[in-house]
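Q: Trace token order:
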Amino acid sequence: MENQASSKSIILNYGLYTGVLSILIAVILYAFGKSANPGLIMAIVSFVAPSILLVLGIKKFKEANNGFMSWGQGVKVGVGIALVWGLLALSFQFLLENVIDPGLIEQKIQVTKTALENWGMNQDLIDQQIEKQRNQNPLLASALGLIFFAIIGFVVSAIAAAIMKQSEEEQY
């Protein structure tokens, strides 16, 4: 593996693709007034479509590496793509909620409140949860969101890399 492909450009390119796709989905949801409550189908699409691009990025790395890739390399590429994806998606979400449409946060809070009421939660607990949501630090929320993207990236890429791994030793 002396001529090993660089993962940096693949991570950046596919991270950009997944981030732009997530932003495009968010813009479509916003245009249709579904940002606060996208529904199950759109939530699944918002996860699956970028995850497919993440897997394609791992595949591209393997192809650029003459068909060879260790599990660790696949995970590194996948998590890298997920982190770039997360940075872009979270940055757009921050802009959407704090610059473009600050009222969107209140809409999300109302959706949360309605869901908690529908689940039969005690009103005091609902009020506490809503207060926590209103007072949430946006930087902390973004950091937690980035950790979430890294975990998703790890899980998806660990599975994909386990399926796609191929070492030179296995070739012979």
Observations:
- The chain has one domain: 7-171.
- The mean pLDDT is 90.
- Residues 7-171 form one domain.
